[in-house]
Structures are given as structure tokens and as C-alpha cells.
Amino acid sequence: MPTIVRISDSSAVQRIVQVNSPPVVVAGGGVQSVAGRTGAVTLSTSDIAGFSAAVAAASPVLSVCGRTGAITLAPADVAGFSAAAAAAAPVQSVAGRTGAVTLTNSDIGGFASAASAAAPVQSVAGRTGTVTIAAADLTDSTTAGRAILTAADASAQRSALGLGTAATQPAGAFAAASHTHGIADLTATGTRDATTYLRGDGTWATPAGGGGGSGTVTSVAVSGGSTGLTVSGSPVTSSGTITLAGTLAIAAGGTGATTASAALTALGGVTSSQAAAAAPVQSVAGRTGAVTIAAADVTDATTVGKGLLTAADAAAQRTALGLGTAATSASSAFAAASHTHAIADLTATGTRDSTTFLRGDGTWSVPAGGGGSGTVTSVALSGGTTGLTVSGSPVTTSGTITLAGTLAVANGGTGATSASAALTALGAAPAASPTFTGTLSLPSGSAGAPTIIFGTGTTSGIYSAATNELSISVSGTRRHAIFSSGNAGFGLSSGTGNQPSLTVATNPSASLLGLSVVGSTTGPTISIGAASGAPTDGDITITPRGSGLVRITTATTSDSSTAAASTAFVKAQGYLSGTVPVASGGTGATTVAGALSNLGVPKANSAATVDPTTTDDSGSGYAAGSHWLNTSGGEIFIARTAVSGAAEWMGLSPMDHPGYVSGLWYGTQPNAVITTGAYPTGSMLFSPMTVMFRVSVTNISFYMVTTATSGGATAAYAKVGLYSNSGGRPANLLAECNADIDLTTGQIKTATFASAVTLNPGVYWVGIVTQGTNAPVFVSWSNTAGGGGFVNIVGGLTGGAFMAGGQLINRMARNTAPTYVAGSAFLPATAGAVTISGTSPGSIVFMFQAP
User: Fold this and answer.
1) For residues 79 and 285, is the Cβ–Cβ distance under 8 A?
2) Model confidence over 546-580: pLDDT tens digits?
3) What pTM does this model have?
4) What was the pLDDT predicted at 661?
5) Is the CB of residue 258 less than 8 Å from the CB of residue 247?
6) 488-489 and 477-482: which strand pairing?
7) Would you give the distance in Å from CA 753 to the centre of its chain?
């Protein structure tokens, strides 16, 4: 049977000790003594080293050998117990009993009763053998508690406890919960004396005519918010009590529970039971036998931590922590860092009532005026030295005081009336296009962070890499530079003033002027430009910086004395001459005519003003296939042969048209048969117009046939416009006649454009819009094959229409006719959708005059 020792202190926290049974067999015998005594031993509190009555009374035992709950001690828990130690005089009995003895609290003097334990100690903190107890082995300790034990000093312990600086101060360092302030304790602006009063905005001021006021709180409400507490009796509107209930949540500093066990569970506390280990503990704190555990046995406890464990009482512990008397005071004993005072808390002389005010000298008194009212008789305003002017001042009854002028720089203004003048007055430049005088000094910058940047890029710009140098960086790398020597380097990745990739200036040897491309201090130099001592038959020289030859390109010839046969070389101070053949990307010629001939390109003349003749031949650079454009007539010619003195040129103009003669009129549709027909008013009609040669058109005419009554169309007008062609349909308006055309008189009507319209050969459309009460009758083209009409160039022919005498020429009508606006330009800019008309009559006959 196991031997169990249960230890309870006055706080009823059980400490249960169970000694393994059967006992451990050791060489020489069993336990030699308990607390230095043999025989029948009765243990008391004095037998526990370091245990004082004051400590026992002030704070209960928290653990035994680092454990709480039902604790089982093994022989190793007894310091000084050694398996090799011989038994001098074995214990005869424990608490007057032999055999399997169970100790109760009554067997240990000074301890109260406790419950029995369930099992012997098998291990310490889950370990067997030689066990060293550390703070982490105290199973009922919290992270905060272990931080106290292992803290380096009292300051660290106060930090672990979350104590503020107030904890080390005496209680007198804080304002009591109930305290008063003298008037000198009030912070306010203004002058505090017998003539000023404390105004509500925190200013000592003289009231205007005295007076005072009062207020009443009409409702006070309280809410539990997210604390978990509930409220009843809220709000109080006259008098009453607001009562709190519920449980305070953990997040609000509570436990969220109503019982101790539930609170421990909610807070993650430890239980009172512990499972047995697999092997017994061999020693405690390095000792066997009868071991007494003291604070010094906690190996990771600091001196200040052990000081807390061995302090005689709580007062000694607070002293060890360096706590002041404020640490034992309730928080309600102090005023909050931010707190307010009721007016009753102010200490002042005089009577405080609804008729008195607090005067600056600490007296409640009635201001001069007796709490009555007064009248302002005059209000004046002055601009002072601000630069502002005032009008309407003073006001003696009612009115407005108006400010004008400009606020001076010395008063926070600009002293100006415009942005540019303000910037000048402030000594600043405008952000857009600033102008500076004197010297503008900027930091040098670097390739990765240039001084002057553009847009949002930060690694490309202008900077100075060294004194009297100017560099340009691109993406953080210097690419161009002008050196102090005057040389300019381009395409740089490195180099100095004498070693740029490209130098535009005198080259390093100062032998040539112009463009110098320098490879390195010993490499070749390519110079472009004349110089003293340079060859007279060329301005391009390739000069080696050292001895030897300069390689130009791969070729089939060689200098057999210096190189292999597959490579061409030019000796130092040699020259290039001749022409580059066509096969090498050149022309093989020294003249334009020769170059064109070598390249197989015949000469062309696109700016002639006359037709070509037989003398425009090979001697003039022309060849078979050469083109010739007469810009004055728009005719194109091509050379069949270019034999000297017998060149043959063939015109590409229509064979059946003689060309336009100035002053004559030409029909828009040649080879068509003329007829007449009436056309509806309020619509827009289009007739095709064919131009054979380049021509400028100013006038377009049409013929109006008189009516049967010879009265013509009554109150009728027409407007004519010229449109381009696109896909066999009228497209964009090119010109519109500059006046309305009267259709009530006359027969030949002419539409005149504001300026001549130049037309290249092609198809165009003449559009006309008419208005009036009668349908005018115009001369038109026949729309049938039988009438000899012109082949339809708009819609094409349908099966056998031409042979059957079907429709040939027709007109087009705009689907949406524009509204006629007399005296104004109103024709649409684009023809839009049109419909082909196959009814008689056909298109209107229009004539245009050649210039």
C-alpha cells in the first residue's frame, strides 16, 4: 500500500504527498531521519526550511516540488537521499504508526485538514532521475507568474506586472479621488485679476455688461456596451439609480462567468489532477534522502524572484518590488489623468449662486453692470499695418464694415493682386515656365538619381559626375557626357575625358579637327574633317593609334605582304576611292542619270507643263517606259522608245475626247440622247458627271423647259452642288453654288461656285434640290436603249437589258431630302443613302464650262 501525506494550509489549498510503496530499496537501509529526527517523528511547519509563520499566514502554499493538485513524492524529491547511504537508525514509525502509514493534515502540526490523495508520485514535471526544477515546471503558474520568477530585476518585474510609473510613487504623488483646486490651478488665456472673469472658452475676460446663465441636465443614460454588463433604470430623467448586472466579459477585464470553476475554465486555468509518470524521481535539486525544498532550489529563479518567494510578508514583497504606497491603493483613490471638476470643486471666496461670476482674484462676485445688459454705441475697425483698408467704419447704429486692399507679406499675405505679382513679392518663380536671375545652384546628382528629370522617370536625366562636367544618364547608367577638357562623349558605359566612345572635338592627339571616334588610348581613331598635315584628296582619314594596319572589310583582294588572301587591308594613311557597285548596295555611277540607268529605273517627269516631244529622248535620260505628266492638262504620256531625236510618246488620255477648250461648255454625260421631263420639287436628285481630263470647274448650267402655259414654275428655286464618287454612289460635297437659282424666269440657268473646284479625271455627281408649287421641266438624258442612252454606270445591267432596249441612264434620289433654306448654304455634307430611279425622265442634262 502507498504511504500518503496530505498537507493543507489555512487557505484550504490542498498539498498532497504520497510516498511510493513498496519503498525503494537502498544499500544500507531505508530513510535515516526526517527533519533530523529518528524514531516516531511528527512533522510540523518548523520542519520545512524557509517556511515562516508569517508567510504561511500571509500567503498559502502554492505547490510542492513545483506541482499542485494531488502530488506524489518519490525518494528523489527528498534532498540528500542517496541509494548508497547506509541506514544509521531507521524510522520506527510515522505519526505513531507503523506499517503502511497514511499521513493526514492532523499528523503535521500547524496544518488543517485536507482530502486524501489517489496515487504515489511517479515523476517530477514528467521527468524521472535527477530532476532540476525550473519555473516552467510549476504547472499552476501562468506566463505572467513565471515572468515574475525569471525577471532580471525589480524593474523587469514591474514591467511584467504591467505596472506604470505610478506604482513606485507614494500615494501623495496623486490627487485624491475627492480633491479641490484653487483658482491658480486653472489653465486659461488672458489676464487673471479682479476685473476679469473665466469665460466658457477658457479665457479670462471682462464680460460685456455682466450677466450670467445656467443649464440643467435633463437625462443621464448608461449602456453596458460590449462589456457583457446589462443596465436597468436607464435613462434617469429627474432622479433615480442606474443598476448594473450581468457578467463582465474577458475582453473587458472580467471572467465572463459567475462561479470560480467556470471562471477558471473560461480563463484556461489548470485542473487539480495529474497522471502518474512511468519512473520514479531520483533526486530533487541534486539531493536525495530527506530533502527540504527552498527558493534557492529553483534554478532559473533570479535573486529578485527568490526575494519574492522568501519575503516575510506582502509588505516585504512590495518593498522588494520597489512599490510605493500608491500600489496598495484602489484606483478610485486617484483622479484620472484626464478628469474634470464640477464648479463646486473650485475653492473661491464669496457667494456662489446664479447671480455671481468667478473673478480672476478667486472671488465669486457680481460683475459691474449687475447682471443686466448694455448697448454698444460704436464699433470701429482698422487695417493697421496689414495693408488692408477699411470702409464703413465706425458703425454707430447698424451697417457693414468692408475690408479692401491687399494683405502685406509681413502679415501672412502676398501684398499683390495677381498670382505672378504675388510670386514676385514672395521671391518665388512660377511652376510653369519659371524665370530665374543670377546663378541657380543644384545638387550634383548621380547616374541613378540625376538632378534634372523628366516626367515620372527618376533614373534618366541630367547631372554632374565631377567638377565642370555635365552628364546624361539613361535608366541609371551614364550614356553621354561633356568633360572639363571640352570633349563630348556619346554612348558611354564607362570612360574618362580622354577615353569616350565618341568624341566631338579635338581628338586626344590634337592632330585632327572635327569628329573623332576613339576606340581606346591605344586603339584606332577615325577622324572626319580637315587638319594640318592631313591628306589633300580626302576629308576622311582612318589612323591607327599605334603601329600596323587598320582592317576595313572582308574582300577578295589583299596586301600579300601583310595579310591572308581572303582579307582586304588598307595601310596606314591609305585612301578609298571609286564607286560602290550595285551588287554591293551602291549605284555604280557618279550621276543621277547613270545611277537610275544602272538601277534599271527609267527617268520620269511629273512636273511638266507641256506635252513631250521627239527630243525628250535617251540623251535627256529618258528610256522606254518613262512617264510624263502634263500638269496643266492632266494628261499622262508613256515613252514607247527613247531613240535620240526620235522618241515616241503615247498619250494615255481617252481616244474619243479632244480635250477641254477654255470657255466652251461640255456635257456631263457624252454620247447620250437628250429629252425632257418634269421633276418633283422638295427632293434631291443626283446626275453622274464624267471628267476626262484634269479641269477646274466654276460654273455648272442646266436648261429649264417652259411649261405649256409659258408661265414656268411659280415661286420656284433651285440649289446645285458637286459631290465626289465612292463605290458608284455620290459621296462628299465638294462645292455648293453661292446663290439661289430662280426657276420662274428664263431657260438657261447657271450655278456658280464661290471658287473654282479642280477635278482630276474620274466620275463625280451633280446634285440639285428644287422647291416651288409646280414641278419644273428640265432637259434630261434619255433613259432607254431605244433612245440611244448612255450605259448605266450606276446600277449595272440586268439580264439582256441592253439588247432588249431596257433601262440605261437613270437618276438617283436622296432618300431623305434636305429642307430648302433660301439664301443660305444648306446642302448636306455627305449624300447619304440614295435610291436609283428607273422611271422617265433620266438624269438632268448638266453642262460645265472649261476655264
Assistant:
1) yes
2) 555 555 544 344 343 443 333 333 443 444 567 88
3) 0.31
4) 74
5) yes
6) antiparallel
7) 59
